[in-house]
Amino acid sequence: MPLSWIKIRILTYFKKRKSKENINRTQQEAEKEENPYLPQLKEILDAILKKKKLSYEKLVLVVIDGYEIENVLLAIRCIGSELNRLIVLTDRAAYFENISEKLYEEQGLIVEFFSKTFEKIAVLGEEETKGNLILDFETGSERQEEIKFGRKIYIPVFKKPWEDAGNLDITVPIGYNTVIVKNIKTVHKQPCYDKFEQAFYENE
Fold first, then answer.
1. What residues form DSSP beta bridges with 154?
2. Is the pLDDT of residue 19 over 80?
3. Orientation of helix 69-79 relative to helix 41-52, angle to 10°
4. What is the rounded CA–CA span in Å between residue 138 and residue 185?
5. Do the beta carbons of residue 37 and residue 165 sit within 8 Å?
6. DSSP secondary-structure letter at 104?
7. How far is residue 45's CA from residue 200's CA, in Å, rounded to a whole number?
8. What is the predicted pLDDT for the residue at 57?
9. pTM, 2 dp
10. CB 85 within 8 A of CB 60
11. CA distance 44 to 135
């Protein structure tokens, strides 16, 4: 067999191997950046707020938009009816138009939008900054800087895993620690949209 042909076969082998490794890595990253507990966010927050002795009436939620918009909208749908204040840091405010209108029409909640800048995120932990609970939807690949949350409740949705603790309990990362939330079932389902939202995404 000619030497050149052997070289070609060797190069082809390593090229295929590298391609397969990249595919596996991409799949692992995608799995890592999923959170099957999002549909149960209301139950989870109920338990966390009870542990922290914070009521929904006094809750000022800050949402850091990131990753897939469907996850962020699902979370707001889960808890929107309980909120008196909602602040969203985002670079794609148009995606929130329908749900913000719905919250205003149904309960008079005016969603406050701000650009998701490094400066805005950097001061979230300061006492004078609005918000006492931060729900972070960014992934580690989107932002490497550590968010300084101070004494506020900081919950990363994708940067740290929410894990099965057995007996339907899960561990939820809060700041540098974790909290065990009991009796939460995993539900695998896709977020659903109303007809206006569906039309919006289909025209993108």
1. 134
2. no
3. 60
4. 24
5. no
6. H
7. 29
8. 94
9. 0.75
10. yes
11. 12
